[in-house]
Structures are given as C-alpha cells and as structure tokens.
Write a structure and sequence with these properties.
With about 210 residues, the chain is an all-alpha fold. The protein has one domain (about 1-205). The protein contains eight helices and no strands. The two termini are about 30 Å apart.
Amino acid sequence: MQHLLILFFATFSAASMATFPPGLLNMNAAKTSVEKGKLNGVIFSLGVSSMIMIQAYVAVFISKFLNDNPDVIEILLKIALAVFGFFALFFFTKARQNKSLEQKTIQVSKRNSYLKGFLLAAVNLLTIPYYAGLNAMWNASGWIKFEATDVVTFVLAAGLGTFSVLYLYVFYFNKLERKSDGFSKNANYILSALMVVLLLVTLFRIYY
C-alpha cells in the first residue's frame, strides 16, 4: 500500500508539472472557459485528461515490454535518459523564448468540448515518451511493479494530475494572464530543472 501512495503522488506531481507551463492544452481549456463558460471548460479538461490516461496506459505497456526482456533493461534506462534530456532542453528553450499566453490559443469548436479536448490531447505525441520515461524511472526505483493496482494507480494519477492543472486554468485564467510572462518563464525553468534531476538520477542508475 505504501508504494502505491508514493507512486500516486510522484506521478500526480509529474503530470501536474508537465501540464503547468502555458501550452496548447491548458490555454485552450482557458479559452473554452472564457468563450463557452466554466462548465464547458471543465468538460474540455475531462476530454484532455481521458486521452492522457489512455496515453499513460500505452506508455506503461511500452515500458513493461522492455522490462520483461532483461537484455534491454539498460536500453530502457537509456531511453528514459534521452526522454528527460530532451524535455530538459525543450522546457528550457520555451522559458528562454518566453512567449505570451495569447499566442498559444487556437479556435475551439462550439459543439463538443469533451471531444475537442480528447482529440487535441491525442495530437500531442510527446505524452507517451514522457510517461514511458517516468515509468522506467518508477520501475527502477521499485515504485511500480506492473501489477493491475500499480497500473491503475499510475494511469489515474496521470489523469488527475493533468485535470487538476487544467481546472486551475479554467477558473483562474484571468489571474494567470496578468502575470503571463513571469508565469510562463518560471514554470518552464522549474520543469526543466526537474527533468535535469531525473536525468541525473537515471545516469546514476545506469553507471552505478
């Protein structure tokens, strides 16, 4: 039970941090809220979170497939290393660019907020390698055992972590918008630093 709690909060935190910097999904959650009301913003966020859970589930089985083959465990850790290195540079670059929030929105259909969120999240192909990398780290740390309860915990934590941040964007977008530059830059620097920490931990696992 204890490892499930650790797994949940670690994954929840990682999902929240990944969703926190202004981007396509959270800005469209805010845009939907402004244009169609907060309820539709929440429904849009539920659509996004549903797809994130599916992607996290796929990521678990990619990680499990590699883990079931002992000869590729080192490859698994190297994949995680590459993923964290990529995201460290990705978020650092976003922080340096420091674009305004308004530039990240697109036109949102008025018809089906849930489906729109679901499809927009599906377009984000970086989600699966991100969660596959996390899963590799959690497995190396003994936090996930690829049992049904572990997988459910991981997937739910990914979905809830994503939804919690989107919910904040839906209800508190006006306050965030007034601090857009500092908010975007600082959030991306923090996330970049987190990726560096995970990268260093992975390096330690590989060579020690």
